[in-house]
Specification:
The chain is built from 13 helices and twelve strands. The two termini are about 20 Å apart. The relative contact order is 0.21. The strands form two sheets. Strands 1, 2, 3, 4, 5, 8, 9, 10, 11 and 12 form a ten-stranded mixed beta sheet that branches. Strands 6-7 form a two-stranded antiparallel ribbon. By secondary structure, it is an alpha+beta fold.
Length: about 375
């Protein structure tokens, strides 16, 4: 039976909006992680058959096929092809899935799954707002979609609030989870838990090696004092993922490539799926995706040692854990996007880098990663650490 392996997975440390990565063009940042991945794995770059790069805000500096531009900005040969994909926040997790599918199908043996997003240089919502300013149509929601759902806008903020209400998550619970994200992230950084996954990025003052979003001085009182995102709501900016700059990359190969190129894997991809549901509540779909991937692979929640559930908002992993009776002590053990940042198209592979290295550091076997995505979609993937 064909297998797909992860030889290595890495990421940049997250940069705050306007922070330490602000001077990096996203194509150059993407090119940097490609170079570092090749250097760390020792793979012959000329044998890479494709680069699949996730990116959500494909406009401005991230337009014109940023995946291919990242290859051109790297030291990889021009002969290495690339494609840029958009599955919203799960773009690079989908890149992982496409790479695994290519390897499992036997059509390719060496593929890079990657992601990049500079939310400093390409502001969130830019593709829509710039088109509106230019008078280019009525926006992405057509008349037929409006007729079907009775709305012209699908808001992740409204969806996150609706999930909090549906799963009976009050503000105090959401704020406490957010504080724990910062606490775990700070503890992981201080213990050197991120060293194996973070690649240094040259900056004017030296090298960027630590996630900028971690707040060592965070307190429950401070978080509780942050203004709510919606009047009468439960979520605030402190219980939402941080705007972030970053890039990530993973090398996915076949068993034949391991033997032919002398590569040593750090994980095996056990199974994956993608599901879709209600585009209005939108961000609840990781629950269904997790159930499906576990069922497909004949596994149970108890078989999984560690989980990575993207903290787009605190209500997402909390609702997921409540619905699936998950042990929060095994979820996002090194903190999540509330503390570390959510560089949109780069987050999928970023979380996988954290998951695999955490499994290996703790002697765990199976890990499951899932994340909510715009439009009511979710990917889920199970990996086995080696």
């Amino acid at each position: 039976m064909a297998q797909a392996y992860i030889v290595d997975a890495l990421r940049t440390a997250g940069g705050r909006r306007g922070g330490k990565l602000a001077d990096w063009h996203p194509a150059d940042l993407g090119g940097l992680v490609l170079d570092r991945l090749v250097q760390r794995t020792g793979v012959d770059p000329s044998r890479i058959e494709d680069v699949i790069m996730g990116c959500v805000l494909q406009v401005g500096e991230q337009a014109f096929q940023v995946g291919r531009n990242a290859v051109l900005a790297s030291s990889l040969p021009e002969s290495v092809p690339a494609v840029t994909i958009d599955r919203q926040c799960g773009s690079s997790q989908q890149a992982l899935q496409f790479a695994a599918q290519a390897v499992l199908s036997g059509t390719q043996d060496i593929v890079i799954a990657a992601g990049v997003e500079s939310m400093t240089r390409v502001a969130m919502g830019s593709p829509v707002t710039l088109a509106a300013k230019a008078g280019m149509g009525v926006g992405p929601i057509s008349d037929r979609i409006e007729q079907r759902y009775g709305r012209r806008e699908f808001s992740q903020f409204d969806g996150a609030e609706a999930i909090a209400v549906k799963h009976d998550l009050d503000r105090e619970t959401l704020d406490a989870f957010s504080l724990e994200s910062h606490r775990r992230a700070a503890q992981a950084r201080n213990a050197g838990a991120f060293v194996a996954e973070i690649v240094p990025v040259p900056i004017e003052t030296g090298e960027h090696v630590h996630d900028e979003g971690i707040r060592d001085d965070a307190t429950l009182e401070g978080i509780a004092g942050v203004k709510l995102l919606r009047e009468g709501g439960r979520l605030s900016a402190a219980s939402a993922s941080q705007i972030c700059d970053g890039a990530s990359a993973a090398l996915i190969v076949s068993e034949r490539a391991l033997k032919d190129h002398g590569l040593t894997p750090i994980a095996r991809i056990d199974g994956f799926c993608v599901t879709a549901g209600d585009p209005v509540i939108m961000l609840e779909e990781p629950i269904a995706a997790t159930r499906r991937v576990l069922d497909r692979e004949g596994r149970k929640m108890g078989d999984i040692d560690l989980f990575e559930v993207n903290e787009a908002f605190a209500s997402i992993p909390l609702a997921w854990a409540k619905a699936l009776d998950a042990d929060l002590g095994r979820v996002n053990i090194n903190g999540g996007s509330i503390a570390l940042g959510h560089p949109l198209g780069a987050t999928g592979v970023k979380l996988m880098a954290t998951l695999v290295h955490a499994l290996r550091a703790r002697g765990g076997r199976f890990g499951l990663q899932t994340m909510c995505e715009g439009g009511g979609i979710a990917n889920a993937m199970i990996v086995e650490a080696l």
